[in-house]
Write the structure tokens for this entry.
Amino acid sequence: MSHELLDKINSPEDLKALDREKIPALCGEIREFLIDEVEKSGGHLASNLGVTELTVAIHRIFDSPRDHVIFDVGHQSYVHKIITGRKGGFESMRKPGGMSGFTSMRESKHDAFGAGHSSTSVSAALGYAEADKLRGSDAYSIAVIGDGAYTGGMVHEAINNCDPDLRLIIILNENGMSISLNKGRFASYLSRVRVSKKYQSWKKGTKSFLSRLHFIGRGISAVLAFFKNKFKNLLFSSNYFEDLGLYYIGPVDGNDYKKVERALKKAKELKKCVVVHVKTTKGLGYAPAEESPDAFHSVHAASSAPDSFHTVFADKLISLAERDEDIVAVTAAMGIGTGLSKFGDVYPDRYYDVGIAEGHALTFSAGLAAANLKPFISVYSTFLQRGYDSIIHDICLQNLPVKLIIDRASLAKGDGATHHGIFDVAFLSHIPNIKILAPATYGSLSFAVEEALKSKTPIAIRYPNASESQRVNEIFYKDGKYSDFGVRLSFAEDTYPKRIFITYGTEVDRVLDAHDVLALTGESVGVILIERLKPYRYAAERIIKYVSRADKVVFAEEGIKNGGAGMLLLEELRALDHTVALKYAVSAIEDNFASPTEPCDLYGFVGLDPEHLINKMMDK
């Protein structure tokens, strides 16, 4: 589809050259482009529709890449990508090796900072601003942060260190949503922050008045400034940002281009640290997204199956909560993504969405457990690592029975390296008293949740963003004994294959593909599925008799190799039979972030596709 104006925009310079009166028409064309491309490739739609005018204004007023524009979260950067010459990349977006769905320093000089996670922009922009100050540069640093991301504690830590005289502009985009509705006291406060025209005029007048009193001395001037603030607070409500010493502009209609441009010009002219508060409508310009911004936060290229591991988990937790009033559920702004919002609908008083604050969510859960409640905290694998200190010090060191439900525990083909769930097994395995379960079927997940409920120590259950594999059910659970999960065999207990694959999680399907190819060639081959990872001695004791008699053993793991389950299981097996190491190999993600630079099959890239597994087994 051709667009008269958009087709001519390939850089910020092209945008600046466009007649100002044509901006609304351009924004309309950008929205048409986004709706068409994102519904084909998948991606974040509603948030980008909402920031169209804002992003256009930023690139008209500032000079990227000399000025550093940082989006938080980076999924609201699609308009930015369009303006900075990446329209053609949308065909490969959310494909391994294609254009990232987030900002990426590797991808463009206009992406000042990579942001696949949340609440990082102010810290990063502050770093740029301080560096420019040291070098004598007059460049600006601009953090574009959503109100959902603003609930993260790291933002407030950064603001605590903001020098009011830095050329740092914090654009706070309020749309009342992260993925779902924002929660918490700050989100509630933000929705009420208003600065009237009378106050703005009064502030300007008093500033002018005080500036003419330089002759009366600093002491008296300071006293007058003190009483000015007291009088302001009496006539007008106190403003959080100005109380912190930051200049505040807003709120501004973020979907009115002229108003946004005027506010950003004012912020730039001040040459100091400024908060520009804009209000945008998530999904603007596309009726379905406006009506259901949560449903159109992330659009999938293909429809998802009705059931997935997280829906089964949520249903199971709801059923257990009917009988146990001590069960509570915690999430960090991922109620819809983890399925826990369903629990919240049934038990609103026992459901806690703490906003984008994973460390707090974990320590809060530790407090709930210390008070003898039974907290289940569901969090994406890639976000869990943000709270690693809380897991060690607040949960495990005190041996509190918090139940970690780790969603998206696998490679994220669409979102890429920032969202890969490949580190949790390695970083949790080194903590002494935590159990790790990796159920591969809905049935075993159900029993894993029951075990977690009974656990008196910390326990983690990990699963992918996927539906269960019917083949895995048919091969490993012919007997239907889901309660007997832990170690399952694809072969009869009294047989001893010469070549054995050991695996867990989503890698089992690719392992079974490799198994089938080898079996057709006449090889004696079997697969061992491990659903109870840590403690590793449990699995080692149950499989050592098969491993000891095999000629070759390959452990396949959709996770990082260093410190992963494959290495740790080997240590336990070697303690039982020192000869195992001679025939044991690990296929896992080597020392990299699984981030290809060219389009490819992601599993082939990391060596976990059937072909690589077969070659590893046959020593090719």
Q: What stands out?
A: The mean pLDDT is 89. Residues 309-410+425-462 form a domain with the Rossmann fold fold (CATH 3.40.50.970).
